[in-house]
Design goal:
2 domains; 7-stranded mixed beta sheet; 7% helix; mainly beta; 24% strand
């Protein structure tokens, strides 16, 4: 069977609900802009791999071989790469928040703009890796087992709220990881391109410029998001039960989000993107959709 036929078969089987593709061997793999959340590619051998802007969140890639693989812009949130071969890999602007990279061979890998927040690099081989000022390493375990906490963009709850109380409103590109902001008010703030991961924002009241913000594994239960400019925002694996508000939600995307009992909506100049979300009435909307309503044929 030709490689493109094997690839087509993989996508069909994945769409049908299969997730275990361990030990798969492919000489060429081009899966740009795909969704392979939770896929098992452990012990896989891909001689030419391209996962550009693909979602590999929560994927199992342990002991996989992806030399010189192209993961540009890939989302691999909470993915397990332990013991994988990523020598010479292109990981520029990949989001590896919470990824397990223990014992990974990253020799010569390009980490320009790569997001490594809450990641684990214990015993990883970082020989000749390429990093720049855009590379984000925060709350990440280094190869020697020590934790990197300091970041010029990182704030904890106390610092954020003290700055806010002092009148600061510009928090552009700020990073907040494992921060408890439950019940706070952040009004008329500039949070564009901010990164929230594993944060508690339940019952918070938010407004202002939140362009391109990322909410990853966050708790937004009961939050109020009124008059927020959320254009290009990404809500990933976030709990929005009971959230309320009306905002600009142009080009926003929602993956693995729970909207049960929410009253959150807004105006948009473009179709939105939803994947595996729970709707306001509790119905699970499987797969991709640009119109988050329970299918008519399933109403009874």
């Amino acid at each position: 069977m030709y490689e493109h036929e094997l690839l087509h078969e993989l996508l069909e089987r994945y769409e049908a609900g299969e997730r275990d593709f361990s030990g798969l061997e492919l000489e060429e793999c081009h899966l740009s802009d795909s969704i392979l959340i939770g896929i098992n590619l452990s012990n896989a051998d891909f001689q030419t791999a391209s996962f550009i802007e693909t979602h590999l969140d929560r994927a199992n890639l342990t002991c996989g071989s992806f030399p010189s693989g192209d993961f540009w812009g890939t989302y691999a949130i909470d993915a397990n790469f332990s013991y994988a071969n990523l020598t010479g890999a292109e990981l520029s602007y990949a989001n590896l928040t919470g990824a397990n990279l223990t014992e990974v061979d990253l020799t010569g890998a390009n980490l320009t703009g790569t997001i490594l927040i809450g990641a684990n690099l214990t015993n990883a081989n970082l020989t000749d890796v390429i990093t720049t000022e855009e590379t984000i390493v925060y709350y990440t375990t280094r190869p020697d087992g020590n934790l990197i906490i300091n970041s010029s963009r990182g704030l904890d709850a106390k610092k954020l709220l003290s700055h806010y109380a002092a009148g600061r409103r510009n928090f552009e590109k700020v990073i907040l990881h494992q921060v408890d902001l439950s019940g706070v008010e952040l009004l008329d703030v500039d949070m564009h391109w901010a990164h929230f991961s594993n944060c508690n924002l339940s019952n918070a009241t938010l407004s202002g410029d939140w362009y391109g913000v990322h909410f990853i594994n966050c708790d937004l239960r009961g939050a109020r998001l009124d008059c927020c400019y959320l254009k290009g925002a990404r809500f990933l694996y976030t709990d929005m039960r009971g959230a309320k508000g009306y905002s600009d939600i142009s080009y926003t995307s929602y993956i693995g989000v729970n909207f049960q009992d929410a009253e959150f909506s807004g105006h948009s100049e473009s179709p939105l993107f939803y994947y595996n979300v729970i709707l306001e009435d509790g119905f699970f909307l499987q797969g991709p959709s640009d119109y988050p309503h329970r299918p008519k044929e399933k109403l009874s």
